[in-house]
Design goal:
The chain is mainly alpha-helical. It is built from 14 helices and no strands. 75% of the residues lie in helices and 0% in strands. The relative contact order is 0.15.
């Protein structure tokens, strides 16, 4: 227990340092963005007086360190600032986009776990035989296809040619759960690469565990093959699989911009694209901080789970 507490304390401290680094990096990168938000908001033919008034209203006339201090203080109180384009709180943008993104992530994850683990166990059970080669070949081929290319292919075949599914989510708003057909293609695209990487990880862990001396010893004691596979071999594949799942959830919540743009889903990725196009710096900053903190938290959780499952593996803190 002492070793676990020490590991948790080190990882929590590292998580705090990483979060502070994310805040500083986000502010520095948005400061380095080209152009001037005040000029962009002033219109096509901006008047210098209007530009100056906008800069003063947005506190852009203050030194960078002062704006950083004010922004960081607001973050500590849950205030992500106000949109320059609409005047709405940034938290409203995050709240509006989080629902569709979370729905896509949840559906993808709900399918990813049984399919990924199932394919990995199936391939390991038939190691070196036709089923193993088939699963490995298909997963490798699917993993090599970029999401946007697979999305375009699925839209062309299933939506435009066969008319089985809607090609985009246009007209459905944020209530996508009431229109499940609009979710099929995005979920398939999001599921394609993670299920390949997860199944290959599970297969590799299962193959190593099934070849280990302790599984052979269990068989000599007359333990059934299913018990050996699921109670002795599979747990050894859980630690790397847990870390892969954390990276996948992080990607689903923070990196689905291409899929949301392709299927016109009003999630966090779409909100970020619109904010960048409008040079709405507070929205970009707020979303970047949310994405960064989610990454830190999910990786922290994955390391804790992996350390708990394999405490002797020495997960780096």
């Amino acid at each position: 227990m002492t070793g676990l507490r020490s590991f948790v304390a080190r990882r929590l401290l590292l998580g705090v340092v990483q979060t502070v680094a994310v805040v500083l990096l986000v502010f520095a990168l948005t400061e380095a963005l080209p152009g001037d938000a005040a000029v962009a908001l002033a219109g096509d033919q901006p008047d210098p007086a209007r530009i100056a008034a906008i800069r003063e209203a947005m506190h852009l006339d203050q030194p960078a360190y002062q704006r950083l201090a004010d922004w960081a203080t607001g973050l500590l109180h849950g205030d992500f600032g106000t949109s320059l384009a609409s005047g709405r709180p940034v938290t409203q943008y995050i709240g509006d986009g989080f629902g569709p993104t979370l729905l896509l992530a949840g559906l993808t994850l709900a399918l990813l776990i049984p399919v990924g683990f199932g394919l990995g166990v199936l391939a390991a059970r038939h190691e070196g035989r036709f089923v193993d080669r088939l699963v490995s070949s298909v997963t490798l081929a699917v993993y090599a296809v970029p999401e946007f290319a697979l999305g375009v292919l699925l839209v062309t075949v299933l939506a435009l040619k066969l008319a089985w599914l809607p090609p985009t989510a246009v007209g459905y708003g944020t209530d996508l759960l009431a229109h499940p057909a609009a979710l099929v293609l995005p979920v398939l695209v999001l599921l394609s690469r993670p299920v390949c990487s997860l199944s290959r990880l599970v297969r590799a862990g299962m193959v190593d565990a099934l070849a280990a001396p302790y599984t052979a010893h269990a068989r000599r004691y007359g333990i059934s093959g299913a018990r050996v596979r699921y109670l002795h071999a599979l747990p050894n594949a859980l630690a790397p699989a847990a870390q892969q799942l954390a990276r996948t959830v992080d990607w689903l919540l923070c990196g689905v911009i291409v899929v949301e743009a392709l299927f016109v889903i009003p999630g966090l990725g779409t909100v970020l694209l619109n904010a960048v196009a409008e040079r709405d710096v507070p929205v970009v900053q707020g979303l970047a901080v949310v994405f960064g903190v989610l990454t830190v938290v999910l990786n922290l959780g994955a390391d804790l789970v992996a350390h708990r499952l394999t405490p002797g593996a020495g997960v780096a803190a």
